[in-house]
Amino acid sequence: NAGVTQTPKFRVLKTGQSMTLLCAQDMNHEYMYWYRQDPGMGLRLIHYSVGEGTTAKGEVPDGYNVSRLKKQNFLLGLESAAPSQTSVYFCASSYPGAVLGAFFGQGTRLTVV
Amino acid sequence: DAKTTQPNSMESNEEEPVHLPCNHSTISGTDYIHWYRQLPSQGPEYVIHGLTSNVNNRMASLAIAEDRKSSTLILHRATLRDAAVYYCILRDGGGTSYGKLTFGQGTILTVHP
Predict the structure, then answer these.
(1) How distant is the Cα of B85 from the closest Cα of chain A, in angstroms?
(2) Residues of A with CB below 8 A from B98's CB?
(3) What share of chain A in percent tops pLDDT 70?
(4) Residue B63: per-residue pLDDT
(5) Alpha-carbon distance A54 to A48, whole Å?
(6) Which residue does chain A place closest to B30, by CA atoms?
């Protein structure tokens, strides 16, 4: 059972380039989330989705777009990368509510030069 | 979102018990107390959660104060592999928060051999 898988694990972008991070989960979870983590800080929510075809903004959504065309996949896009988006990105998924825990991927380390 | 307060860091010796405290004085009736940990260079990992009663699982125990304004994560015998950042998070079980997790700074646990 793979759980939550993020692709790629590492990436270096030049300022202004675009890219898409892929998150895939095999637990049939309704909810999916994208977080970013800057050095020495806790995770901050970028966008989230409560079901196929739905997305919503989190705490730090500017500069990012997301799509959830299939229940198992949640894509995070950077249209024009900036050095301020250098970070580690984590995807998570969970069932609705709070009675069970959320599961996280291993992260994507993105550097924008 | 209701906030939690944790010590910045704690230290323990291997094979000794560790008690990680968390204060959440503004907790609401629908908030579940969740604990996650993040090992170096990994994504957060679910540890345990509870609502009102103390909880035990294979990883840890969670002791919840009677007024629910504080809780303690207990690692019964710390190992070097338990060295991580531990996050105490209130996760709203109600319908409008969509299970979002708000991460603080967490507690850095150092385990000495």
Answers:
(1) 9
(2) 31, 48, 50, 56, 96
(3) 98
(4) 98
(5) 9
(6) A98
